[in-house]
TrEMBL record:
Keywords: Acyltransferase, Chromatin regulator, Chromosome partition, Transferase
One Gene Ontology CC term in the entry: Golgi membrane
Lineage: Eukaryota, Viridiplantae, Streptophyta, Embryophyta, Tracheophyta
CDD domains: NAT_SF
Organism from which the protein derives: Vanilla planifolia
Gene Ontology molecular functions: histone acetyltransferase activity; protein N-terminal-methionine acetyltransferase activity
Transferase among keywords: yes
Protein name, UniProt field: N-alpha-acetyltransferase 60
Amino acid sequence: MFDIEISHCPTIIYRPIQSSDLEALSQIHASLFPIRYEREFFINVVNGHGIVSWCAVDISRPDGNVDELVGFVTTRITTVKESEIDDLIKCDTSRIDQTLVYILTLGVVEQYRNLGIATSLVQEVIKYASRIASCRAVYLHVIAYNQPAIRFYQKMMFMLARRLPKFYYINGQHYDSFLFVYYVNGGRSPCSPMEAIAAIAAYFRGQLRMLTAKLWNRDDKSSRWSKCTENQSLTQNKRIVSAENSVFQTV
Ligand SMILES: CC(C)(COP(=O)(O)OP(=O)(O)OC[C@H]1O[C@@H](n2cnc3c(N)ncnc32)[C@H](O)[C@@H]1OP(=O)(O)O)[C@@H](O)C(=O)NCCC(=O)NCCS
């Protein structure tokens, strides 16, 4: 599938991901990420069930597979309230329905890297988020050792908001993650004294929630490590991958 020679200047076009992309999408995820995504995740992506996604294809491919994915980005919308970054978003008392776009996965097959494909895909996400009146930011997690992705998001002007110690648990090992945010529609974090106080209060509420969750997890270890589905994961503070390598959520 990926043993292809590409022309020096491939002609890349971008389109939404569709049903016919199912197999290619799951194969690329398997080849790019150290963890396995559940089938349900891919089915939701190609059917647009709660997930908005785009892909890149090379219409100048010499092998004729001109509609086969060479890059993709998958996203979903969440509310600020439900997210873990409510303290990073400007309070807007007139709107209770503020939202965020969360980047679930982003990838480009190796032969097509450094051609600006991920840049175009993420720009598409930013455009999409900016068009949603209630949307305040695009955000995502990157595992701390993924230098190319970290440099990529920095180049794209995402703000490194925080480091989350031991955020990922993959095959028996903990890894930190970085949380990157790109503000849209004036969603930048608070700066007035009142807003700062509200943000601090939100931060402590978040810490309390985490502490409660930790205590709860301590009481119920078995459920802590049990397999989750992709849908559950966005509201969780940690992404945990089981020893069998099955997964629910990461980027
Ligand atoms: C991160 C990734 C999506 C970038 O895709 P891409 O199409 O090559 O990115 P672009 O060509 O649009 O942008 C390249 C920029 O990213 C950074 N970058 C990408 N690969 C890099 C590498 N190997 N080393 C250093 N910087 C790198 C550079 O800042 C580069 O900027 P430049 O063009 O000014 O040199 C790609 O490397 C990938 O698919 N990696 C595996 C999956 C992954 O890690 N996904 C992200 C998870 S959060």
